[in-house]
């Protein structure tokens, strides 16, 4: 059954989460609380992003664990989400793009693990282009007597119990799934509430937009190069914001495909399996789309490292299938 059934557009996120919890007679409310904690941090980050402040704008002058320039907002978003999850009490460990090691929240008895990219696409911030937060939730596999472990964090994407993103764009939206469809909520800042605006999102089976960094085309695998030639022959449109959440969101609503393939120099591409590929793959599948590394299903990959990278092909099912066909010719 889909999460949005019987709940009208305009329902607040809080009420939505509460009503959905009632559908599970034995639910303890911990996952509901966790989702509320994420929504709270999202509101705070949305506020910070939408105003100009020298303390929150620009680069820090440091690199993160991936060797990328950290923006002040990267660090602020990281702190805000960690704080909300720590204070909420439902998460024992967090994996963040901004931190090399597992973050232990101090809630050793808590049931859940969160992997997150606190601010994806943050290099776009200073030019006022949309950015996002991506999150993924797992139930821990270790006992609740100890801190979260590496094994808790390195689970297959199929084990996710929830995943979603926040898009800080012309409006701020929270889109999430708990494995029963995908629902989108739009933030109304004057009321401080997210409202159900996009119930039961289904990605069109195909589309006419493709998103990739085409400057890298000569380094892409031959199958992807041939797929791009097909897109051009079909007169598809190229649409690349360079913010994964924003590109994914457009394709989710309108149909389309996003890919960030491997190259000779970076065979695993750029995006991270745990907190970029897996959560978006879960959402794509729940909306009727697909996500692969070009050939194999993303959600079945067994991660070996916290920050491992993975090629990503994601979007409308027929388009992702077509890429797979070109990759295996
Ligand atoms: P980030 O997590 O450091 O922001 O990197 C991820 C971003 C995605 O949002 C975007 O799709 C991609 O990197 C853009 O990369 P490129 O500039 O190589 O096209
Ligand atoms: Mg990022």
UniProtKB/TrEMBL annotation:
SUPFAM superfamilies: Carbohydrate phosphatase (SSF56655). One of its GO terms (cellular component) is cytosol. Substrate binds at residues 120-123, 213, 240, 270. It catalyses: beta-D-fructose 1,6-bisphosphate + H2O = beta-D-fructose 6-phosphate + phosphate. Pfam families: FBPase, FBPase_C. Mg(2+) 2 binds at residues 117, 120, 276. Pathway: Carbohydrate biosynthesis; Calvin cycle. It is an enzyme of class 3 (hydrolase). One of its GO terms (molecular function) is fructose 1,6-bisphosphate 1-phosphatase activity. Its EC number is 3.1.3.11. GO terms for biological process: fructose 1,6-bisphosphate metabolic process; fructose 6-phosphate metabolic process; fructose metabolic process; gluconeogenesis; sucrose biosynthetic process. Residues 12-199 form the Fructose-1-6-bisphosphatase class I N-terminal domain. Its main location: cytoplasm. Homotetramer. This is Fructose-1,6-bisphosphatase class 1. It comes from Rufibacter immobilis. The lineage of its organism: Bacteria, Pseudomonadati, Bacteroidota, Cytophagia, Cytophagales. The gene is fbp.
